[in-house]
Amino acid sequence: MYFDNAATSYPKPDCVPEQMVHYIKNIGASPGRGTYAAALEGDQLLYDTRKAICRLLHISRASNVVFTANSTEAINLAVKGILQPEDCVATTAIEHNAVWRPLKKMEQSHRVHIRTIGVSSDGTLDLAEAKRVLSQGCRLAVFIHGSNVIGNILPVQELTDLAHQYGALVLLDASQTAGAIPMDLTEIGADFVAFTGHKGLMGPTGTGGLYIKDGCVLDTLKEGGTGSMSVSPYSPEDPPDRYEVGTVNIIGIAGLYASVKYISEIGVDKICKQEQQLIKRLMVSLQDVENITLYGPGEKEERLGLLSLNIKDMTPYDAAKILDQKYGMMARAGLHCSPQAHRAIGTIQTGTLRISTGWFNTEAEIDQLAQALMEIAKERV
Amino acid sequence: MIHRIDIIETSPCMADKSKLKGITVADCDLTPLIPYINAELPKADYKKESESISFKKGIIRFTIMKNNINVTRFDTVTHLRELLEWVMDFLNDIDSRKDKITPDYRTFVHPAPPLIYKELPQTNCGKCGQKSCIAFAGRLSRRKIDVEECSPLFLLENEEHLANIKELFAGGKPL
Ligand SMILES: Cc1ncc(COP(=O)(O)O)c(C=O)c1O
Ligand code: SF4
C-alpha cells in the first residue's frame, strides 16, 4: 500500500504510460526541431499540454506556461531570474528546500536579504505577521501554497494581495497543490507559480513548469538551442522559448498531457474531496490514540491529503520501517526536505512520519493503516 | 467550418528579424468565405485576381488564400498557435453568420499619391507620424495608414479637401 503521494503520486493513471509509449514508438520526433509531420505533431502535443494546464489552473495564455524538469527548477528560474544584488526577499518559515536553498545561495552570492514570516506551532500563518514583514518592502515574496510537512494550505490570495500592495512580485510554490486542490491562478494574481508534474498532476517525473504572468520577463537560468531565432547569438526575448532551451522532455510531456486530461475529466474538486476525506478519516481514527502525536491543522480545518505524526519514543524511521516490513505500507519518514517546516512545528530533531493520500487510495487502505499505526503505538505503552 | 489548422513552416520575418512568419493550412478551402471577411473588416485588403485577403490584428498580419493562412510578426511557435486558435474562432464565427452578412467584393483602389497630396494641408506638421505630407499620401494610397491620422484634414476648413480625398477612393473599399 502506497501512502507517499506527497513525494510522488503512485500509481499513475494507465493513460500516462500508454501515451508515453505511444509517443516513443509512433511519433518520436523532437518538437519545434523540424517541419516534417512528426515534429509538428510533437509541437502540437506540447501546445495541447500547455493548454490543458491553462484550463486546469485557469491561466489565460499558453505562452504563460514554461515547462521545466520539476518545480525545483521552476523555483530556481524565478528566484534567480528576478533577484538582483542586495535585494530583499520575503518568505515563510515553512518553505521546502526547493525554495530555501536557492534563497540561501542568493544570500551568499548576491547579498540578498531574506526576511522570514513566522508561523505558529501548528503551521498557521498569521496575516498580521505577514503584513509586518512585507511592509518592510522587498522585490520578491515567495509563499508555499500547501505545506508538504504540515499539510496546511496558506491563504495565498490574501498573501498575494498584501505583497502586491507593498510592491513585491509574488512566487507561489504550488508543488503540493497543483492538481490536488482547485486553483484559479488568474484570480490569485501571483506573478510566478511553480508546479511539478509528478505529484498532484499524476504525471511522470521530470515534468513541471513555471507560470509567468504576461509582461514579466526573467533573466535566463540556461541558454541554448530553442529551434527558433537560431541566427541570433542570444536567447529569444519571448516566452516560452526564452526559457525552454535544449530538447524538451517530450516523452514526459506526453505523459503529463494524459494525466492532466485524466484529472480534468474527473475534476480537481472531486479528487481534492476524496484525498481530504481519506486523511480526515485517518485523523479521526488516530486523534485520541495514546502515544501518537498528530501535527498541523485539526480535523475540522482545511488541509491537503497529508498528515505528519510521531509515535512516542520511536523515531519516524523505525515506524516507517515497521510499516513497510510488517505491513507492506509505504510512508515517508524524516525531514521531507523541509527543515524549516520542522523547526516551525518543533520536530527538527526527529522529523515526522508522513502519510500522504492519493486518488487511488481507498477507505479500506486507510483503515488498515490506522490499525497498523495503533498496533505500533500500543507496543510502546 | 474550419476544424484544424496545421503549421507547415516557420521562419524569421524579413522585415523584423526578431519576429517570425509562418505558413499554415486549414482543413478546408477558405475562398468562399473571403468576401464575407472583406465585409466584416473595412480595413482588410481584398485582392480579386488572386482571391486572397490580408488583415492585421495589432502588428500581426494574416493573409488568406485558398487553404493557406500566412501569419507574420509573431514571437514564438506557441504564440503562433495561440493566434491560429484565435483566427479559427474568428473565421468560424463569420462562417456561422454568413446568411446575415452581405458579401463585399470591393477591393482597394490606389489613387496616384500626387492626387492625394494635392488635397492635404501640405504643412508637413508630422501629426500623422509621417515625415511629410508626401509620405502620408504614399501610405494612404497603399492603405498603409488611416486617413484619420492626419488630424488637420478633419478641421472644418478642410472639409472639402477631405471629401475630395474620399472621392478619389470611390469605387473601391471606402476610406
Ligand atoms: C512544497 C514543495 N516544494 C517543492 C518541492 C520540489 O518538487 P520537485 O522535487 O518536483 O522539484 C516539493 C516536493 O518535493 C514540495 O513538497
Ligand atoms: S498630419 Fe496631415 S498635414 Fe501633417 S504631415 Fe501628416 S499629412 Fe501632412
Summed up:
The complex is a heterodimer of chains A (381) and B (175). Chain A is α/β, with parallel strands linked by helices and 381 residues long. Chain A is built from 12 helices and 11 strands.
User: Can you tell me the CATH architecture of the largest domain in chain A?
Assistant: 3-Layer(aba) Sandwich
Q: How is the CATH topology of the largest domain in chain A named?
A: Aspartate Aminotransferase, domain 2
Tally the beta strands of chain B. 6
| SSE order of chain A | HHEHEHEHEHEHEEHHEEHEHEH
Total count of helical runs of at least 4 residues of chain A: 12
How much of the sequence of chain A is in beta strands? 5-15%
What brief labels describe this structure?
heterodimer; A: 381 residues; alpha/beta; Aspartate Aminotransferase, domain 2; Aspartate Aminotransferase, domain 1; 2 domains; 4-stranded antiparallel beta sheet; 12 helices; globular; B: 175 residues; alpha+beta; TATA-Binding Protein; 6-stranded antiparallel beta sheet; binds pyridoxal-5'-phosphate
